[in-house]
Write a structure and sequence with these properties.
This protein is of the alpha+beta class. The protein has three domains: about 55 residues, Orthogonal Bundle (Helicase, Ruva Protein, domain 3); about 100 residues, Elongation factor Ts, dimerisation domain (Tetrahydropterin Synthase, Chain A); about 40 residues. It has a four-stranded antiparallel beta sheet. A hairpin with a 6-residue loop joins β5 and β6. α2 crosses α3 and α2 packs across α4. The chain is globular and about 55 Å long.
């Protein structure tokens, strides 16, 4: 018998991890066994597996899905979101609809400007780099240190403006990309944010963002 199999896990812990992560009971049990009953470590294990599963499915076409809305602050803020998956069956599941609502709510609260890093315009990237380089140069630090500082600043910039890089408003330890990855692992299909629009009463401009579309003929596994 392996070390993982020998670890006895209380059913209450499995249920708690299931509620926290949304992962299947069997996966929760295995993660807890691997983590020797440590709830936080088991959650990390599930997150890593979810990201790995999502990465494997990322090239698969998402031609189904649903459009959802979220209205906040007494009708002062509204979001329209298109979330895609591989089949109409998954699009109608409670898990998918919950994810659609959660992401729309997050957009209403945080107001991202882009879906992901790939959509950030070269002009925005260069503008931010120029600002950060000037700030770093003013410290008098060596060039190699300045470049490392620039990397850190750009990472923070992407987190501020890109939906997929942002910490989920309801669970700050998860990014939106990781939240999606959890559902991918659970539902067994690729899931992607296609586009969204956010409107706020009284503001002259509004946010509209679309993801770059990757076309693939790879069938679902």
């Amino acid at each position: 018998m392996s070390t993982i199999e020998a670890v006895k896990i209380d059913a209450k812990l499995v249920k708690e991890l299931r509620e926290k992560s949304g992962a299947p009971m069997g996966d929760c049990l295995k993660a807890l066994q691997e983590a020797k009953g440590d709830m936080e470590e088991a959650f990390v294990v599930l997150r890593k597996r979810g990201m790995a599963s999502a990465a494997k499915k990322a090239s698969r076409s998402t031609n189904e899905g649903a459009v959802g809305t979220y209205i906040h602050a007494g009708g002062k803020i509204g979001v329209l979101l298109e979330l895609n998956c591989e089949s109409d069956f998954v699009a109608r599941t409670e898990d998918f609809q919950e994810l659609l609502k959660d992401i729309a709510m997050h957009i209403a609260a945080v107001d991202p400007r882009y879906v992901g890093k790939d959509e950030v315009t070269p002009e925005d990237i260069e503008r931010e780099k120029e600002i950060y380089r000037a700030q770093a140069a003013a410290t008098g630090k060596p060039a190699n240190i300045i470049e490392k500082m620039l990397e850190g600043k750009m990472g923070k910039f992407y987190e501020e403006v890109c939906l997929l890089e942002q910490p989920f408003i309801k669970e700050q330890t998860l990014t939106i990309a990781q939240l999606i990855a959890q559902k991918v692992a659970k539902l067994g299909e690729n899931i992607s944010v296609r586009r969204f629009a956010r409107f706020k009463i009284g503001e002259p401009s509004f946010t509209v963002a679309s993801a770059k579309v990757v076309v693939s003929d790879e069938p679902a596994a």
